[in-house]
Design a protein that fits this description.
With 209 residues, this protein is mainly beta. It contains no helices and 15 strands.
């Protein structure tokens, strides 16, 4: 298993030990599907010129962790994307933490091994108005971004959040970007746990609060 981290800064206009107490019950997080670049306006007041509103841009920082599902070949990627909220946007003083599980460079064997869940050592989540009139914990960019697999659920036990995909992310596919916010504005290097459809799990690098 290879773990690799790369960093880049860009401007976009569109789109471990986990401390769960034994016996603690999982708290389901509220998920909402959103469009890009409209979702950016929750974090940034910077309008995109000549784009139909709402349309905002954010400055992002990306980190990549790599892993290979057992039995498959090629590098799968966990993309961690962060960007700060700026005033007077609703998420001013918060930090966005956005993730994507990408198996587009992976080739499956006779029985392809896919990703079923992703677990992060995240901590408290800030609810924000990702859709007008209501606040949610997690947003999924199903329009205007990369991907084809959305979330079925997100559950938190202690600091650990486990994201379950609506169907396995298999070789050749990628999840949609999905994100949440934290009051912690200095992302830290961490290790995420990725679970597989044929059993077992591995860890890979991520960025968390």
């Amino acid at each position: 298993m290879t773990v690799k981290i790369t960093m880049r800064v860009a401007v976009i206009a569109a789109a471990g030990i986990f401390g769960a107490a034994s016996g603690a019950q999982a708290a389901p997080l509220a998920i909402v599907n959103v469009d890009a670049p409209a979702i950016n306006c929750v974090f940034s007041p910077t309008k995109i010129p000549n784009a139909p509103p709402p349309a905002c841009s954010v400055v992002v920082n990306d980190a990549i962790g790599t892993f290979t599902p057992p039995g498959d070949s090629g590098d799968a990627r966990l993309q961690s994307r962060t960007y700060p909220g700026t005033a007077p946007a609703p998420a001013a003083a918060d930090m966005a933490y956005v993730y994507r599980v990408d198996l587009t460079a992976v080739q499956g064997a006779t029985a392809a091994n896919c990703v079923t869940t992703l677990a992060l050592d995240f901590g408290p989540v800030v609810k924000l108005p990702y859709r007008p009139g209501a606040k949610f914990d997690v947003f999924v960019v199903t329009v205007g971004g990369l991907g084809s697999v959305e979330l079925a659920s997100a559950d938190q036990v202690g600091k650990t959040i486990t994201f379950t995909f609506s169907k396995p992310v298999c070789p050749g596919a990628t999840s949609y970007f999905f994100g949440l916010a934290s009051k912690k504005t200095h992302p830290a290097a961490g290790m995420a746990t990725v679970s597989f459809s044929l059993g077992g799990s591995t860890t890979t690098a991520d960025r968390v609060p």
